[in-house]
Sequence to fold (696 residues):
Amino acid sequence: MHELSVIVTIQDVAARARVSAMTVSRVINSPARVAPTTRQRVEQAIQELHYVPNALATGLVKGRTRTIALIVSDISNPFFTIVVRGVEDVAQRNGYTVILGNSDESFEKERQYVTALLSKRIDGLLIAPASGDSRATLDMVSRRGSPYVLIDRDIDGVIADSVTGDNIGGATILTGHLLSLGHRRIGLINGQRDVPTARDRRRGYEAALREHGITPDPALIIESSYRREEGYRAMQQILALPLERRPTAIFASNNFLAVGAIEALRAANLAVPADIALVCFDDIELASALDPFLTVVSQPARSFGTIAAQFLFERLDGDVGRQPRRVVLTPELIVRRSCGAQLVRRAE
Amino acid sequence: MHELSVIVTIQDVAARARVSAMTVSRVINSPARVAPTTRQRVEQAIQELHYVPNALATGLVKGRTRTIALIVSDISNPFFTIVVRGVEDVAQRNGYTVILGNSDESFEKERQYVTALLSKRIDGLLIAPASGDSRATLDMVSRRGSPYVLIDRDIDGVIADSVTGDNIGGATILTGHLLSLGHRRIGLINGQRDVPTARDRRRGYEAALREHGITPDPALIIESSYRREEGYRAMQQILALPLERRPTAIFASNNFLAVGAIEALRAANLAVPADIALVCFDDIELASALDPFLTVVSQPARSFGTIAAQFLFERLDGDVGRQPRRVVLTPELIVRRSCGAQLVRRAE
DNA sequence: TTGAAAGCGCTAACAT
DNA sequence: ATGTTAGCGCTTTCAA
Fold:
């Protein structure tokens, strides 16, 4: 490097190319409006000085940052990992940068993130809200005038574009699958009550039961949160029931919960499906490739990301009406013979 | 909302509280230097107007943004997912925002990200470089004067703090494990040659073989990239060998490659370890919980993130010398009896 | 086709 | 304890 100053401004480039800062700005933003020879001089100066425009200054004056944010509720969930990919692709095609945030299902962490992002003047937000309480947080965003799109989870009273899955339908199908196999006592290991997906998955589960003339048994419904340890604990709790009340099948409302449940079963030397059947909402990616024997309802995660991003960019371009658009994507039942029996045998 | 203007500036707050903008600024940045009564008036105005400072303006004048970036090479790899968690925790404790980027092992995508981030004037960077070529990209960062820390992958000739794993050692242990089980013909399914971790894992593999008087057989070494499909393809290629040349064991240098390899084996109706043994570098998280029978070398991913972030913040605080610090974390061998035999039986 | 002036929202440095 | 001034790096507007 020849330069001593690490920070190169548009003025430095202008001086080197013997033009005004305005001309440099034009070369960057509308090259056509600059004479070819001048342009070349400027471009050379930019190269030589390794000039990188200061996006803070540009954002300040233009009022736009060409940046959107994506806040997911759990970055370690393969579902969201795929959503991220979808969003990134669409954003890149539109020339936007994505700031990715992970709320870890924490309302407080989510609020902090959103505040920081508003402060950074992002142009728009894609968010899988941590809980129903996120409404207040989203109101901050509306107030700022930034558009946002809800992903995976709708929130009552929030009027915005959204891309969600048919959680009631998926849960109904999955529970129906168990019922059609002859199960009558089906347990539900669910996420937090106030997470919209959990609420709907429970609704679907109960609806399917009632349709078959079965009254949901509160003792068979355990609600905690979408985490592996909770799945483990919930399963233990279910196993503590007297044998005649114990369910013959389990519906885990999330992939992590299912994995936790299987671990608890294994610890208790019980086999899936020999001793107890198990299905879950959302696929488990790598795991289902390795041990392809768990029946699941799988969601088109990538589409969640691409459609939501599409919606957001349309709002940013202003070429869409006032009324919110709500897309509900249909999950797909993937029937696999459950694993577990063999695992236990081998573990012995 | 009573306000019509969506954009609230410090001037608006100042007017409402009947003070100067400077006083508002002081209330926000050094509350102690403002009289309690004044402060209260200002704080109330801030509340009422829902004022959120413009970080673009602040960053422009202060020359710091309190933002760092983390670029990982594959966001869908559970290893990096855990790294993200570690980084986020340390950043949050230090009052920094994290911009997460996913280069998807693409050098070009990485370069674009870094340029955008420099333009946004991030204070520092944590990066798992896509390849050895990333050096030029990192030079841009040094030139800007921003510190960065390498995660997971060191790069020749780059002088910076780094947190990596002992890839040679881990691969040696893993290969040694297979040798100790009596295997003599061991295949390697590896990532890209120019990815530092892949290069070192191969070195460890070859070192272990040589130590046991075995000359590595090029026909048993397949190098592609760290992706499931490539693992599948590589395994197919190995299975195409005449029986007497076919390896009795496989070392997959990455979790994704291992999963792909197992899928190929299953498709060929071959069982692990009955027909062929398999071990891999990096654990497979959920999958190993579900089917806990694959021997792996597991890395302390969280520590990769926390230590790297720690290093970066120390540089930002300036309380550390010029010479780079290099930490090499030791992976842990987790011996599990391999799955596969049962899978195939069940699949039949 | 190019440049000069003004200002985006904030804070450092210097008053008062 | 509070206010005034100037300027961070860029672009918009207007002028030449």
Q: What stands out?
A: Residues 27 and 43 of chain A are 8 Å apart (CA to CA).
